[in-house]
């Protein structure tokens, strides 16, 4: 609580938006006025009391789909980023700590992964193993693992060179202690900053895959594909398709507010 | 009143306006043309801030809250940026502590030299280059015609420091601020650099402010000395008078630091650790070659040498951070594995290390409690109450109050406190042998003295054996029982302290001893003469 009291307004705003998104996503079936895929009226109905954001290209309620979209898009993006970061950071620190051929092997493997353009790699992998939500999460996590690995390896390299790592090694500490207690706290601020940015990339990547038809499959609601599905409305001067886009932007900005605040705290700067 | 610089009642503040931290208070300084003023004090005494203020410059977040800085008719405290820019480099120059960090690594020395003269329009490029070569020659840099075309990383630290002094002289300023310019250098290099700096300021009649914590050095350079503490002046007097009869207690305590002596050990020496023909390589470079000596139980063995002599490599080999390529290390009569991972837990516990840079030797993300708790738990297996009691006991051993310090984070400690925590971490393992790697070289004299006294006390109480690696002979004289002198990976000479200091057998040992700054004013001239003779003797031989 004392933590929240010292938070700047931007961070509080970010936290509120994130909390609201998560809560809405979690309780989507209770909050949403209609079902996710339920067809409730004609296509492209204007905003009204019954349908606050109108209906979409198939006559489904926009607001309900926004709410379910929060669950799908945000939940999956968070999950994917989480996997990419925990695995990537652990491997990166491990490579930095061990050095030598272990580091060489892991770094070159990651280079191979990064040599292929991410979208093409994702298309290829998903074509092989088939498009499904678990597969998509796995593939994006593997693709985003590469930059996280490189970042955490580079950051950990600087820490590994310091004497306290030598002191802990001389004590006979095991690898897990070295990674978790000695290295991780020193590179966590770098990782957190990167996570905020990567989360947005993953978010957009999922939207892109959905657009290409191998991401989140219709009729499941997702903010990325909702923009595309209703894009025709823009030509008529209707802002409805921009609402999911706005939601993506709002969440991205909020998360970066939170990340900035955490970084500020981690670096010990008082503003 | 100084006829070049007069500082009156200067006050520097940092932090908020309502509750400021005072950096300098009521400082008065006077400097005549061609005069050298020494500023002496511990770190945090405000001597660097005072030096920078003499240029009209303050660090970020610091402001001039009062007073005048009168430089040849201009009040620098109120001067505009444009005025300061005209003066800086042209009439007032600055030589920083770390030349390596002050040169731009991407440009050649001579181009950085020419920057000032070109900017201030005192010379064109060709003239500046000619002048650079002339000054390099006067600073007695090797190959003065060619050295300017090298990049900073291609010349040694001592040469870089001289190149920086030459650069400061480029516009023939009226005043140079030297901010601890030789602190990072070896003693033998320091002599050359000090000599060159003194010659060039005398030659051009340049006034200087020489900032240092080393009294012996300042007594060679300065005409007058000002002692500072907590941002205030303690006393000012002519060098000779300051050395012979300081008036303030604080000044006397600074002067007395060099007088600790560990009582000589008597009785037979039994070896605890024996090095038997140990050699070590960095790829093809032989860093250690045929090292044979024994460390006596309960004694302090000092390993002395300049940088690159292999003394830190020796510490790594004993600690197990680097495997020897030949020979063996015997611990208590039994061979010790070269790699620490192959040593037993008991061996790891018994051999501990204290590091030079306490800043990097302690994890900045941990509190003092976490730093000590882990080795206590790891090596002794104590739990709960007993473990907490042991951590408190360690804090008392190192003379830090547990209630005040246990929950502080490492970055919240001062340099001396950090080093004490580093000692406590080593003690947590209940070791028999501690390797001290240059542990006082980053500390002020007074703080270093406290650390040395603590180590001597701990040795007596806990029966510890120390290997003390250092390049500072004053420290060796204070703490060592046995001395090993190293050069280029070999042992030059070894023996009891008395023998090495009073009757050194080898020419190198004599040269090293002669390089230690002495407090009398004629030392630098003597040392330079001796060094020149020794060099010509070495060349002749």
Automatic annotation (TrEMBL), chain A:
Gene3D superfamilies: MetI-like (1.10.3720.10). SUPFAM superfamilies: MetI-like. The chain crosses the membrane at residues 12-32, 74-97, 109-129, 195-216, 242-263. GO terms for biological process: transmembrane transport. It comes from the Bacteria. Keywords: Cell membrane, Membrane, Transmembrane, Transmembrane helix, Transport. GO terms for cellular component: plasma membrane. Residues 70-263 form the ABC transmembrane type-1 domain. It is a multi-pass membrane protein. It is found in: Cell membrane. The keyword Cytoplasm does not apply. The keyword Ribosomal protein does not apply. Belongs to the binding-protein-dependent transport system permease family. This is Peptide/nickel transport system permease protein. The lineage of its organism: Bacteria, Pseudomonadati, Pseudomonadota, Alphaproteobacteria, Rhodobacterales.
Automatic annotation (TrEMBL), chain B:
GO terms for cellular component: plasma membrane. It holds the Pfam family oligo_HPY. It is a peripheral membrane protein. Gene3D superfamilies: P-loop containing nucleotide triphosphate hydrolases. Its main location: membrane. GO terms for molecular function: ATP binding; ATP hydrolysis activity. Residues 5-255, 273-513 form the ABC transporter domain. Coiled coil: none annotated. It comes from the Bacteria. CDD domains: ABC_NikE_OppD_transporters. InterPro entries: AAA+_ATPase, ABC_Ni/Peptide_Import, ABC_transporter-like_ATP-bd, ABC_transporter-like_CS, Oligopep_ABC_C, P-loop_NTPase. This is Peptide/nickel transport system ATP-binding protein. It is found in: Cell inner membrane. Belongs to the ABC transporter superfamily. GO terms for biological process: peptide transport. Keywords: ATP-binding, Cell membrane, Membrane, Nucleotide-binding, Transport.
């Amino acid at each position: 609580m004392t933590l929240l009291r010292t938070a700047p307004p931007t961070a509080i705003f970010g936290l509120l938006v994130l909390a609201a998104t998560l809560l809405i996503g979690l309780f989507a079936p209770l909050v949403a006025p209609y079902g996710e895929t339920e067809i409730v009226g004609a296509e492209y109905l204007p905003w009204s009391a019954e349908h606050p954001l109108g209906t979409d290209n198939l006559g489904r309620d926009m607001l309900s789909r926004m709410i379910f979209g929060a669950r799908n898009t945000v939940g999956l993006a968070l999950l994917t980023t989480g996997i990419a970061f925990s695995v990537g950071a652990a491997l990166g620190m491990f490579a930095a700590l061990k050095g030598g051929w272990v580091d060489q092997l892991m770094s070159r493997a990651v280079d191979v992964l990064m040599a292929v353009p991410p979208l093409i790699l994702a298309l290829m992998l998903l074509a092989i193993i088939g498009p499904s939500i678990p597969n998509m999460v796995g593939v994006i996590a593997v693709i985003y693992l590469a930059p996280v690995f490189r970042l955490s390896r580079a950051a950990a390299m600087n820490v590994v060179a310091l004497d306290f790592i030598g002191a802990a090694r001389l004590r006979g500490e095991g690898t897990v202690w070295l990674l978790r207690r000695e290295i991780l706290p020193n590179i966590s601020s770098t990782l957190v900053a990167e996570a905020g940015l990567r989360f947005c990339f993953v978010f957009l990547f999922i939207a892109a895959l959905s657009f290409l038809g191998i991401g989140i499959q219709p009729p499941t609601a997702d903010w990325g594909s909702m923009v595309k599905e209703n894009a025709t409305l823009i030509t008529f001067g209707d802002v409805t398709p921009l609402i999911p886009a706005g939601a993506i932007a709002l969440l991205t900005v909020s998360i970066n507010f939170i990340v900035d605040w955490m970084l500020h705290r981690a670096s010990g700067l008082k503003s | 009143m100084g006829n070049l610089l007069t500082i009156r009642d200067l006050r520097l503040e940092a932090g908020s306006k309502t509750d400021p931290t005072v950096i300098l208070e009521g400082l008065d300084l006077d400097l005549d043309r061609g005069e050298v003023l020494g500023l002496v004090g511990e770190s945090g005494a405000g001597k660097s801030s005072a030096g920078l203020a003499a240029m009209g410059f303050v660090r970020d977040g610091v402001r001039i809250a009062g007073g005048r800085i009168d430089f040849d008719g201009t009040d620098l405290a109120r001067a505009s940026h444009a005025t300061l820019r005209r003066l800086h480099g042209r009439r007032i120059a600055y030589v920083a502590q770390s030349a390596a960090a002050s040169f731009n690594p991407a440009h050649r020395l001579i181009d950085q030299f020419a920057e000032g003269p070109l900017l201030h329009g005192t010379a064109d490029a060709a003239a500046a280059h000619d002048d650079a070569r002339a000054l390099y020659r006067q600073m007695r840099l090797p190959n003065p015609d060619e050295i300017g075309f090298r990049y900073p990383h291609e010349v040694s630290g001592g040469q870089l420091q001289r190149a920086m002094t030459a650069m400061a002289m480029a516009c023939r300023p009226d005043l140079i601020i030297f901010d601890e310019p030789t602190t990072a250098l070896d003693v033998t290099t320091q002599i050359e650099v000090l000599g060159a700096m003194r010659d060039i300021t005398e030659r051009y009649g340049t006034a200087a402010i020489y900032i240092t914590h080393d009294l012996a050095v300042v007594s060679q350079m300065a005409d007058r000395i000002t002692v500072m503490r907590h941002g205030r002046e303690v006393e000012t007097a002519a060098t000779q008078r300051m050395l012979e009869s300081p008036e303030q207690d604080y000044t006397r305590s600074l002067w007395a630091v060099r007088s600790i002596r560990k009582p000589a050990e008597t009785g037979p020496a039994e070896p605890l650790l024996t090095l038997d023909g140990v050699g070590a390589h960095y790829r093809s470079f032989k860093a250690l070659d045929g090292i044979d000596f024994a460390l006596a139980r309960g004694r302090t063995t000092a390993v002395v040498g300049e940088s690159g002599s292999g003394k830190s490599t020796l510490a790594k080999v004993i600690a197990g951070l680097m495997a020897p390529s030949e020979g063996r290390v015997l611990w208590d009569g039994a061979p010790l594995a070269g790699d620490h991972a192959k040593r037993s837990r008991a061996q790891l516990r018994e051999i501990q290390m204290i590091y030079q840079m306490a800043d990097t030797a302690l994890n900045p993300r941990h509190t003092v409690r976490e730093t000590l708790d882990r080795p206590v738990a790891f090596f002794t297996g104590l739990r709960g109450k007993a473990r907490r009691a042991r951590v408190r006991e360690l804090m008392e051993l190192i003379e830090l109050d547990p209630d005040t310090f246990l929950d502080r984070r490492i970055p919240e400690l001062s340099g001396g406190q950090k080093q004490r925590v580093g000692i406590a971490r080593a003690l947590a393992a209940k070791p028999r042998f501690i390797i001290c790697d240059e542990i006082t070289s980053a500390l002020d004299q007074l703080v270093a003295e406290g650390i040395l006294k603590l180590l001597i006390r701990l040795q007596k109480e806990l029966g510890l054996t120390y290997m003390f690696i250092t390049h500072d002979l004053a420290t060796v004289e204070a703490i060592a029982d046995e001395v090993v002198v190293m050069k280029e990976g070999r042992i030059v000479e070894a023996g009891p302290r008395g023998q090495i200091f009073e009757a050194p057998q080898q020419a190198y040992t004599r040269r090293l001893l002669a390089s230690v700054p002495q407090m009398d004013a004629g030392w630098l001239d003597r040392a330079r003469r001796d060094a020149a003779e020794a060099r010509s003797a070495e060349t002749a031989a």
